[in-house]
Structure formats: C-alpha cells, structure tokens
Amino acid sequence: MKIANFSTLFSILFIVPVTFAQLRVGFYNNSCPTAETIVQTIVRNLVTDEFESDPTITAALLRMHFHDCFVGGCDGSILLNSTDSERFVGPNLSVRGFELIDEIKTELEAQCPSNVSCADIMALATRDSVSLAGGPNYNIPTGRRDGLTTNANGVFDLIGPTASVAAFLSFFGERMLNTFDAVALLGAHTVGVGSCDLFEDRLTNFNGTGLPDPSMDSNLVANLTSICAASENPSTGLDRSTPLTFDNAFFGQIRASRGVLQLDQRLATDEATSSVVAQYAADNDLFKRQFAIAMVKMGAVGVLTGENGDIRTNCWAFNDKFWVVCDVFDLLF
C-alpha cells in the first residue's frame, strides 16, 4: 500500500465520517464547566511531580486507556478494584496510574458531585499527559458513562507483542480503526516501556533456534542483552532514541531494525503497514495529527451514553444502590 503524500492520506481518513454516538466536545460546559480545567491542572501537577521518580507515567496512562477501551469499550471498567475485575488479570496486572485517576475523581466529586464519569476522566487525563510529553493536544468528545459490568476474560484477547501484522490490523479493524489509526496508536510506544520477558527470546533463542532474531540490529541485541542481565525485573524503553518524548522517532527506529518488540519490528517490513510507517517516520507533524485522530476514534469504542451505564462516585467501585432497595421495601411494608 503506497500513499504519495499527506493530502492523499488526509482525504482517505475522512471519506467515511466517524459516528461518536452522543459524545460531544464540551459535554460538561453546563453541568461542570471547570471539569476539563481540573483534570488538566491535576495531571500537570502530579505528572510533573511523578515524572522525577517515574518518567514513564505518560506511557502508563496511555496503556490504561487502551486496555480499557479494547476490553468491552471505553467504560472505565479497568479501574474497578475487585478480585474478579479486569484490573487483576493477565497483562493488566502491570497497568499503572490508578492513583492519578482517583485524585482527579476526588476533586471533581467535591466540585461537581456525580457529574463526570471515570471513563471521561481517563480519556482527558491521558490526552493531557500526552501533551505534556510533547505530543498533540486535541479536543476530546465527552459524555461517556461508566460501565456496570467487568469482563476479566476479555483481557486475554488483547493483542500481544508477538502478534502478526494481519492479526493486529484485524483486531483494530473490528473496532472500526483503519490501518493509519492502528499504526499511529502503536506509535504510542515512542514513550512505551517493555519488560524483558516480552522480548528476551528475540535475544537468545528466537523461534527455538538458540540464536538472536536475525531481523534485529546486532548492536541492539547486545545492548538489550546487557540490560536484561542487569537486574531481577528489568525493563527498557521501546524507543531507543527519545524514550521520554512523544515524537515520531519510534518509527525511524523500527525502520532501522531497532524495534524491541516483534510486532513493532514487523510493522516496518510488512507490505500492509510499511508505507504508513515510512510516512510517519518522515513527518513528525503527520504522525501527531493522525495519532490525535486515532485517539478520538478509539475513545468512542463501545461507549455508554445517555441513560446507559452510570456515573461512579468512586472509580474503583460500582455505586452501591442497596439503600434504594431498602427505601422501597420500607414503603411497601
């Protein structure tokens, strides 16, 4: 697939309008006019503080938002803190950033009780965190409501780091995200972090050969081998050039055979995605614009709006409606 320039890409992206249900920019303008300002302020303050001790907080929020939207839709279900919830199974065990969402929710409940959903908080906080890391700042349609169920089994259907490009594109396509969206969203790995267990086989025993993955740059193999031997639970940036800055360097890295994860590397060579990778690698502004478009589309996957779902008082628990049942029981008897 070859696309000549950005104007062609731009026209393709907008041939089919995206339907965002009842979401709209400025949803809280009347009910909680300071909502987005509160989110932005807390994210700026906490991310700045946490960046000194945890510079991967932007990656953490992106991963949380992705894993929420891709399991049952963008409904805040990943935030639920119960033993049978999505939060405590499979790849979600390493999801982080819950404290930041809780901090924002506490302040919004103080200012605008039962108005702003946890699902919207997550979308807004992720956007603001990306912007602080040098990424795009974009308008997000809001009006999501929080889910009333959790789907722990669905977590195991998330796309993994060794998936084929065909499986990757199919996974995103089932959620109405096209190739340009999918590759741009994986570009979030520009600030991503991977633990060695996700790629160690590529360094020492690729496909059972007892040798490194021949598609990986030999200097990268040596560097990662050293990193993975240095500590008990080692991890490393997925962008080997500017791992803490949200930019297009990731795409240049995978084109140079310096992709840490197997799926990342495959994007650069597969005929279905290689031309898109090349365009993003050549144009940082193009990547950021398309990433913003893709994030808005992803943020509308499986949303609950209107009378569906709920507005949780605490993001980590379903609202307790038992007292309502008791009141009705007392009236009847």
From TrEMBL:
Q: How is the cofactor bound?
A: Binds 2 calcium ions per subunit.
Compartment annotation: Secreted; Vacuole
The name on file for this protein is: Peroxidase
* Native source organism of the sequence: Camelina sativa
Question: Where do the Plant heme peroxidase family profile domain residues begin and end?
Answer: 22-319
Pfam families named among the record's database cross-references: peroxidase (PF00141)
- Which reaction is catalysed here? 2 a phenolic donor + H2O2 = 2 a phenolic radical donor + 2 H2O
Q: Look up the record and name the cofactor or cofactors this protein needs.
A: Ca(2+); heme b
Q: What family classification does the UniProt entry report for this protein?
A: Belongs to the peroxidase family. Ascorbate peroxidase subfamily.
* Broad class of the protein's primary localization: secreted
The EC number on file is 1.11.1.7
Q: Which UniProt keywords apply?
A: Calcium, Disulfide bond, Heme, Hydrogen peroxide, Iron, Metal-binding, Oxidoreductase, Peroxidase, Secreted, Signal
Q: Quick one: signal sequence residues?
A: 1-21
Q: Which InterPro entries match?
A: Haem_peroxidase, Haem_peroxidase_sf, Peroxidase_pln, Peroxidases_AS, Peroxidases_heam-ligand_BS, Secretory_peroxidase
Q: What class of enzyme is it?
A: oxidoreductase
| Protein purpose | Removal of H(2)O(2), oxidation of toxic reductants, biosynthesis and degradation of lignin, suberization, auxin catabolism, response to environmental stresses such as wounding, pathogen attack and oxidative stress. These functions might be dependent on each isozyme/isoform in each plant tissue.
